[in-house]
Amino acid sequence: MRHRSTIPSLALLAALSLTSAYASDTSIKIGNTAPYSGPASAYGTIARAEAAYFQMLNDKGGINGRKIDFLTLDDGYAPAKSVEQTRRLVEQDEVVALFSSVGTAPNIAVQKYLNTKKVPQLFVSSGATRWNDPEHFPWTVGFNPTYEQEGRIYAQYILKTKPDAKIAIIIPNEDAGKDYLKGFRDGLGNHVAQLVAQTTYLTTDPTIDSQMVLMKDSGADVFFAEATPKFAAQAIKKAAAMGWKPLIILPTVSNSFGAVLEPAGLENSIGVVTGLYLKDPNDPRWAGDPGMKEWHAWMQKYQPNASTGDLFNVQGYTAAQVMATVLTNCKDDVSRDNIIKQASSVSHLALPMLLPGITVHTEPGNVTPIRQMQMARFDGKSWVLMGDVLGEK
User: Fold this and answer.
1) 277 near 372, Cβ under 8 Å?
2) 3-class DSSP state for residue 275?
3) pTM of the prediction?
4) Residue pLDDT, tens place only, 175-227
5) CATH class for domain 147-276?
6) Is 308:296 a contact under the CB 8 Å cutoff?
7) Pick from 43, 172, 50, 37: which is nearest to 105 by CA?
8) Backbone angles phi, psi at 167, to 5 degrees
């Protein structure tokens, strides 16, 4: 898939007075890779939402008089393809920055390349800890709460609510899974022996049925399904089919109503818990919320055929708002140097679809933008928030 929210003619491009090598007086070119195909194709929704948001901005005149030329390419969630598509965006399309490219392994594959080229790798759609390493990768900025922090929060929630729990966990056999597992084990602390089953899967696997049987047989009564949407849905469905009824925890990357809970079966998903930092469009508490009303109006106009129950549409909308804020703050200097400077100094930005009390904040020594979340339980219709906002202030 290749999407352009605006396509200037070659003649126009030739005539433009360039303000930097990668932006003109009338447009800013931004690149993205996402899995529109393959085993993680549910995440393609995020990039579609971002494209739709930039289209809305362009219809209103763009940012500081410049339209956003958003180029998003399919990488199938395959790192080798991510490298190929990213090099194309940088070397042929001459984008000023990569924005919200999806996935841990795909972004790891291009991180060194982008940093060597001094191309901003912004608001990576992943919570890997390595995105917050400005000393070694000064051109990279993450987006999601880190997987380590999220893992710690879930472990602490388990110890608080089920102190004698026997716990099983499945993770992808890649860096994202290792980050989650490290945070989870750290959160368990001296209770780590309560982790009675631990297994992995590959994103190329057709199913995780055999792993599910092993975890059920372990006697676990808590199950952390740290999996991408396809496998998270499989896990919930298989647990129900086997008559296994543990407390199931889903990560923030796989708590979408439309992409996970519906395919798993809403009845099967009742009681599942997760961490949230975005407002759930299915939650009636937000029915009168101005930000939610604005989001629904945008969805109706710019994504009329997309699911309003899919949190990935909320994520794409919110990530695009953060990027738009950075570009707005750049004013007339849309050089790569200024873009990374502005992306590394976003001060407690409150956005309409973030949960109350959660803001976007970066500083030169800590470029993890979202550092908080709130626990929630699925009641068959929506995520019901529980307790306080957790994480860093």
Assistant:
1) yes
2) strand
3) 0.90
4) 999 999 999 999 999 999 999 999 999 988 999 999 999 999 999 999 999 99
5) alpha beta
6) yes
7) 172
8) -115, 135
